[in-house]
Specification:
Mean pLDDT: 79
Largest sheet: 9 strands, mixed
Distance between the termini: 114 Å
Oligomer: single chain
Number of helices: 2
Strand content: 35-45%
CATH architecture of the largest domain: Sandwich
CATH class of the largest domain: Mainly Beta
Shape: globular
Structural class: alpha+beta
């Protein structure tokens, strides 16, 4: 009698274990069905963009400081990224920059001279990546450098005089040529009745 009871108990245990094993296999198949498409989708993720370092020719008399510069390399081209700091109590709304390569002979080759818009409140800093792609191929041994030539607020425009001459001197390692900045009223973006002249 006791032997029959133990036999029935053992048979029930084996049956339960098979059900658990079958349900575990089903759950594993269900989990695989969810995970497998995710594994296949990994190839669709965007490739991490490469970042190229860019030297900054700093113009100290501009109200905008470039703390760091780089080019983000993607399949659509290169995008300039600048870490900017605003040293005035005016909101900055745009700039013009020149991007160059400098070869081993310290010869300068202009790649781009662009105007870009952005918004940077008074006394703030932020990193901006411009949306306009650049397309060029840097040669081995060449350095990249950028200089801000113009800064714009709604009230004022700061313009670097003879920017090309100063940049060429910088490429040669001649730091005695200090860029001169001219400050004028912004007659385009100023609100009506607030036109001011600076000398």
């Amino acid at each position: 009698m006791l032997g029959t009871f133990l036999l029935l108990l053992f048979a029930g245990f084996v049956s339960s274990a098979e059900e658990v094993s079958r349900s575990g296999a089903t759950a594993q198949r269900d989990f695989s069905a969810v995970v497998a498409p995710l594994r296949r989708g990994v190839g669709l993720l965007p490739v991490q963009a490469e970042e190229l370092g860019v030297e900054v020719f700093q113009v100290v008399d501009l109200p905008l400081t470039v703390h760091e510069a780089s080019l983000i390399k993607t399949d659509k081209g290169l995008f300039l990224k600048l870490a900017l700091g605003n040293s005035l109590d005016l909101k900055m709304i745009g700039l013009r920059y020149s991007l160059v390569t400098i070869n081993s002979k310290n010869e300068l080759h202009f790649i781009a001279n662009r105007v870009e818009g952005f918004s940077l409140p008074a006394y703030e800093s932020k990193t901006v990546t411009f949306k306009t792609p650049l397309k060029f191929k840097a040669k081995d041994g060449e350095r990249l450098a950028v200089m801000v030539e113009q800064v714009v607020s709604r009230e004022t425009i700061w313009e670097v005089i003879k920017a090309k001459d100063a940049f060429e001197a910088y490429a040669r390692g001649d730091y005695s040529v200090v860029p001169v900045v001219l400050r004028v009223a912004n007659q385009v973006d100023s609100p009506p009745g607030q036109l001011r002249m600076f000398f």
